[in-house]
Amino acid sequence: MASIAPGQYPYRPLSQQKDEPEIRLLSITYPPAGSSSSSPQQLKPPINDDHTCLLTLTHHRLPLTPPSTYTTEPPNPPSFAALSYVWGLPTPGQDPPQIQIDGYAVPVTANLHGALSRLQRQRFAGHLWIDALCINQGDATEKSAQVALMGRIYALAERVVVWLGSTREEERAGCGALRDVGELGALFREQVLGVPQGLAGAWEGGRVEGFVKTVVQFAVTASTEKQQRVGFDFEAIWRLLRERPWWRRVWIIQEVVLARQAVVLCGENPELPGASVPWEDVRDCLRLFEWMVLYPNTGPEHTRLYALLGDIYPNVSHLALASDGYRRSLENPYTGLPVLDIMMWTSFGTSTGASILATDPRDRIYGLLGMVREEDRRRIPIDYSPDMTLGKVLFAVGKALLEDYGPDMLSFCHRTLLSPAGLPSWAPDWTAPRLMPLIGGVFFGNEKDARGRGDASKGASWRDWATKCQIRHAAYENPVVSLQGVVVGQVGSLGREFKTAPDSPSYLDNCRDWLVEVEEMAKMRNARGTAVLDEIWRVPMADFGLGARADVEGAARFRHGFDVLMGRIPPPCSEVKSGATTSWVSAESWDYRRVWKIYERRAFVDDVGRPGLGPKDAAVGDQIVVFAGAHVPFIVRQELASQHRYRVLGPAYVYEMMDGEALTGGVSFRVMDII
């Protein structure tokens, strides 16, 4: 959470009793009609004298259950709303606007002042929780305690008020876009989600596809003919969802997911159509966008529409995923999500330029804990003291996940130049872009299905091996964990990293050169005979298609794409004569290339001639390890100072290792220390 100067407001300490801790609420009232509006407690500058309001901060106990469940005495706290908004940055060269609370001048950001002004205009009265005002931002101890309560606060609020902000130049367009989003979501819920058997029934009956086609027909973009510009303005929707900073704030995820009821506000004028829309309509519109992406209409007249959707959906999908996941979690014996679920679902928003951002990088974790089940929250304490670095927070998360899911979690260990120094190699950096693994990962299906995706440890289950590993004792100052594993090979030769962009004129040629290099490396270490050369096509895709192993999805079509790229299947004479050879190669190899996983990785051949695909930081001599309970092998590097300690570089695909072949002949696991 960011911090602004608290001004001169004299905050009284809050009681932090475990069962019913205190919170502050901002009380908004209006003077009686005809009375003087010059109270020192008014919001300044007032929009006009008729809308002057009085602001006070009061203390209230926060119960464990919603206020509506109390029947014998008045609820404490009283019914209140909670504000979901972006703090915003100060305007250079300008003093921040001020409001007066209990007679004290308190500086606020321009965006918060805009939210309060909008609420004034619609005569909002009652109690409101706002983090910037209700938490003493200058007290790190109080801040840590109150942030830990935020999930509870938003869940208990009678309503969450979402403030998207206001720019006078685009106020009418922004409200119009929000109106379109709300209408699309409401229609999708009524005509698709509301049918018997819900979405599954609608999908089977073709209702989803029919609805998507109707929306596409009425979609308006910059390429739409002027005489047809009546419908849903997707250019304005794109600006609303991609340019408004609210969608990029990590805290908003739990604020709307936990809300019992939420409303989205846009613009200063509450009278404009679309100035206020129920959150459930917005949420269901985001779900609609997912189905629009799944049913693309590739006609040239819709190119612009799908370019907009392709940019919108990856940046808002985490909101729909988290909402659906949290709702399902409430059906289970525990309340809340496992921490891995929420970290994975929100990782889609951490890609470069995507939605999930936090001023304080620790909030990438803290901002999600309100949705997490209690047993996981206890292992990841919220602490804003200077001693609690981002590295220590990621260490705590990594340790908890490694205990629960075992070595499969090592697939998430991706490092960037911004990753905290000193973070152990086994702890994922959840602030890094492109974190979701394309090789390995954690499989949530039954164990039989998981092994179908990879069974490098030959049926070894983490549940059976967890007690033979040492994780809980690891400390940040000595971050050694002990896993059971076995070295099954080492990197013998390495290919170059592939960096060519798909839109480069040399892209297809470079794809072929990359494959040729792998083939040549395998020939040089031809200890396994020529049969391995017939399987080189598996390497760039790590033997995995869109959702299953290559042989399950159809090896023939992938092999066809490989042969086309290698020039072993020539283009038809008609394509050669028309000069369309490149287009033909691109089209014929598309099914194959779209499942490649070669970016940020390098091909290699091990010491006995098995080709593979591993992390780009791998080096000749690095070792290939299979850990007990893992579904894929890993590349590790032995520490020079200690032959018994290793650093994990990342997951790998290795031919003839993915189904336990390396664990034959009496090979057994032993203790391996990972740092």
| Number of DSSP helical runs | 23
Class by SSE composition:
alpha+beta
Mean pLDDT: 87
Rg over C-alpha atoms, rounded to the nearest angstrom: 28 Å
Shape from CA axes? Answer: globular
How do the strands line up in the largest sheet?
Answer: 2-1-6-3-7-10-11
* Cα distance spanning the termini: 30 Å
Parts with pLDDT < 50 across at least 5 consecutive residues: 37-50, 67-72
Q: Using DSSP, what is the number of strands?
A: 19
- Helix percentage: 25-40%
InterPro entries: HET (IPR010730), HetReg/Transcr_Mod (IPR052895)
Protein name: HET-domain-containing protein
Region (Disordered): 1-20, 29-50
Domain Heterokaryon incompatibility: 80-255
Describe this structure in words.
This protein is α+β, with helices and mostly antiparallel strands. Among the domains are: 22-163, no CATH class; 168-244 and 279-388, no CATH class; 498-599, no CATH class. It is 34% helix and 15% strand. It has 23 helices and 19 strands. The protein has a seven-stranded mixed sheet with strand order 2-1-6-3-7-10-11. Strands 12-15-16-17-19 form a five-stranded mixed barrel. A hairpin with a 6-residue loop joins strand 15 (623-627) and strand 16 (634-638). Helix 5 packs antiparallel against helix 7. The longest helix is centred in the middle third of the chain and has 27 residues, at 303-329. It is globular. 43% of the residues are buried.
